[in-house]
Amino acid sequence: MPAETATTMDRAAFSVDGTRLVVSGDLRIAAVDALDRSALLKKAAGVTVIDISGLTRIDTAGAWLLVYAQDRLAAPGKRVEITGTSDAQAQLIDVVRASMPPADIAEPKPKTLADQVETLGRMVTSGARKTVELTSFLGQVVATMAGTLIHPRRFRLTSLVHHCQEVGLNAVPIVALMSFLIGVVLAFQGAVQLRQFGAEVFVVDLIAISVLRELGILLTAIIVAGRSGSAFTAAIGSMKMREEIDAMRTIGLDPVTILVVPRVLALMLMLPALGLLADISGLVGGAVMSWIELGVSPAVFQSRLVGNTDVWHFGVGMIKAPFFALIIGIIGCYEGMKVGGDAESLGRLTSTSVVLSIFMVIVMDAMFSIFFAIVGV
Question: Total domain count for the chain?
Fold first, then answer.
C-alpha cells in the first residue's frame, strides 16, 4: 500500500504505511506539545508496528508519547511493537514505561452502611486490644518494681538519676515559663471580667484555684508527655530497631528492668516537683499581672491567697501528679517496645505515644475531677 502523506509537527513527522506508523525527525517536548494525540491515534488505528528508525532526536516526553501510543493502539488479541530503536532509545523507552502509572485504576467503591459498621467494629476491637496490652504492660512493670524491692541489687540507681535529670531538671525552664504565662493570662482575663462587677480582688481566688487545682499540674503533664514521653518512645524504639533489646534478652537481661522501670520511676518522682514549680510560677505570674493591671499589691495578693485558699486545692493537684506520670511513662515505653525494624514505625509510634498520653492524662484529670466533686474536696 502506498505511504500516506507525512504530517510534520515541529520537526517530527508521523506517517502510516500499511500497518506501520513511521515516526521520523526530532521528537522532543515541543513536538509532543504541538501534536494532536487524538487525531494521531485515530489515523493510526490499524497499525501493529511503530517504526522509529528515522528519529534523529528523542527526549523523555517523546518516549512517553511512544509508550502512550503503543498502549492506546493495542487491543485484545492485538500487539503493537516499537521497532528501529537504538540502544539508548530502547533504554529510555523502558525507563519511561516502568514509570507509567497503571492503565486502569479501580475506583474505590462507595462505602455502604455495612462497611461503616465494619470500620467502627475494627476500631473498637483495636482499641480494646490496645487497652488489654497496656494493662498487661502496666502489670509487668509493677511486678518488676516489686521484684526490685525484694532484690535491691537489680535496681539501676545511675539510670534513675540520669533520667531524673533529663525529665525533671532539664524541663524546669519550659515548665516555669509556661506556668508564669498561664498565670499572667488568667489574671488579665479575670480582671477584664471581674472589673465589670467591681470584684477585682477575687481574681486572686480565681488564679489560686485554677493554677493549684487544675492548670498547673495538667499543663505540666501535657508538656512532659510531649517532651519526655516522646523521648522515651524514640529512645527505646531506636534500640528496638537496632536489635539491642533482643541482644539484652539473649544475654539474660530484662529490658523492662533496665529500660522501663528507671524511666517510669523518674517521671513519678519528678512530675510532682515540676507541678510544684508550675504552681509557684503560675501564682507569681498572676501576682505580677494583678499588680500591674488591678493595682493589687503583692502583700494583698499573698494575704488573700493564704487566707482564702484551702490547702486541699494544692493537695488535689499533687495527688494527680504520680498518676499522670505513670500514664505518660507506661505509654511512652510501651509504644517504644512496639517499634518495628523501619524508621516509619518509629515516627508513627512516637506520634501515637504523645497523642495517646495527652488524651489519657485529660481523661484521668476528668475522672479525678468527678471523684473529688463526689467526695466534696
Answer: 2
